[in-house]
Design a protein that fits this description.
Structural class: alpha+beta
Oligomer: single chain
Strand content: 15-25%
Helix content: 25-40%
Number of helices: 18
Number of domains: 3
Largest sheet: 6 strands, antiparallel
Number of strands: 14
Radius of gyration: 23 Å
Length: 422
């Protein structure tokens, strides 16, 4: 029995894809994404469904439909890039674009997913110094060759859980994830934080109950849940379609956000270049930089997502929501103006993020605010030593170890870093 021939699933995914098509213009990969969803995921889980009874089959079908529709439909923008070509890998792109490829490989995007023993902080992880010690017990990250684990102990009680994947480049934090069994993945309770060089609570785990060793292992996510949480995590931290491996483990095509995550699959583009057909080659690859600010904001926002799809439901007073940059940027007059500030106005996706760049970011501001109409007010004279963003894009700490820039550009009152007064 072919699972991907189940018609309600096709209807669900087709609707998801049409919704994305209306939101992002020029997305020609919709049919390819649909095919990958059915053939790549449903085809590989047919063995799981086949032995089940009729009622179990129906529940499994529905779960798979919802999960696959969410991850392949909801992430179509980020994964397709407007090209329905097969993915070829960043090494293929770098053959013709060596400077961009080498620079982008150093970015947080490119290093946002790795095996713990292959992570760029692997030496730090393997040193044994990444731990947390308190009066309730001890937590330690252990790496031994090509395996990693989070070990907890309190008195005579001890536990060890494998850490299969490291999410995050480590510029702020790294969260560890592991497969529990054929149905579940575990997001570990303890994450590494660059600010302290130690393990602290993973965001969102503060309310979880500790076990008898004084430490909850984390939060479990079903692989094919209707909300597809863990599939979305892997989808946004990798490039190309996801596959299912042995034991229904999630297998990314290429860990990290690389060239084709934004530009789309490049196989046909590369073949056209090889044949000397440069005009066709340009048409076969996605160019996000050519999108208008609103579409680009939605494009990046497919992963740098809003906390709620409806702006009226977003709690602007919650400091955790500041990490959703696109939805905050959309509230700014700079974004809403005729010139339209976009993500790419300040950030080059082919280079590592500029963090201590007062001169760099001030220059971006002065491109619009240097004239007599929109010059800075007298109380805020431009200065090479002072960053415009320090006042107009304040830094917010949702917890002691994390700090995010508020992208709702405006004039803030003292003591309020979350919402500008204008």
């Amino acid at each position: 029995m072919q699972v991907y021939s189940f018609s309600p699933c096709k209807v669900l995914i087709r609707n998801n894809l049409r919704r994305n098509e209306a939101r992002i213009q020029g997305n020609s990969a919709l049919e390819a994404i649909k095919n990958r969803a059915f053939l790549g995921v449903f085809g590989r889980v047919s063995a799981l469904v086949a032995p089940c009874g009729r009622k179990r089959k129906r529940r499994t079908f529905v779960s798979l439909c919802l999960a696959t529709g969410a991850v392949f439909g909801g992430l179509a923008d980020a994964q397709s890039g407007g090209s329905d070509s097969a993915y070829s890998g960043s090494a293929s792109c770098q053959a013709c674009h060596p400077e961009q490829g080498a620079s982008q490989a150093l970015s947080g995007h490119a290093n946002s997913l790795a095996r713990p023993w292959q992570h760029r902080l692997a030496e730090t992880f393997a040193s044994g110094s990444v731990k947390r010690v308190s009066d309730r017990g001890r937590v330690r990250l252990r790496i031994d060759g090509k395996s990693a684990a989070i070990e907890t102990s309190a008195g005579t009680a001890a536990d060890s859980e494998p850490a299969d994947w490291a999410f995050g480049a480590g510029e702020q934090a790294v969260t560890f994830v592991s497969r529990v069994d054929r149905d579940w993945y575990l997001e570990h309770r303890w994450s590494y934080y660059a600010a302290t060089g130690a393990l602290e609570l993973t965001p969102g785990h503060q309310a979880t109950d500790p076990d008898e060793s004084g430490s909850s292992t984390g939060i479990r996510y079903r692989i094919f849940s209707p909300r597809a949480e863990i599939l979305n995590c892997f989808g946004c931290h990798s490039t190309g379609p996801l596959r299912l491996g042995n034991g229904y483990s999630i297998v990314p095509s290429e860990p990290g956000v690389r060239c084709e995550a934004c530009h789309g699959g490049g196989a046909t583009h590369i073949r056209a270049v090889a044949k000397g057909n440069l005009e066709r080659a340009l048409a076969l690859i996605r160019h996000p930089g050519r999108l208008p600010p609103g579409d680009l904001n939605a494009y990046c926002g497919a992963c740098h997502r809003p906390p709620q799809s409806n702006p009226e439901e977003i709690d602007w007073g919650d400091p955790w929501n500041v990490r959703h940059q696109p939805v905050y940027l959309s509230r700014s007059l700079c974004f809403q103006s005729e010139r339209g500030l976009s993500c790419l106005s300040c950030h080059d996706p082919h280079t590592p993020l500029v963090r201590a760049g007062t001169e760099h970011y001030n220059a971006r501001c002065m491109e619009c605010h240097a004239g007599p109409v929109s010059a800075p007010a007298a109380v805020c004279p431009p200065s090479e030593a002072a960053a415009c963003s320090s006042c107009h894009m304040p830094r917010v700490r949702p917890q002691a170890e994390l700090e995010f820039t508020n992208h709702w550009i405006g004039v803030y009152q003292a003591g309020n870093r979350l919402q500008p007064r204008r």
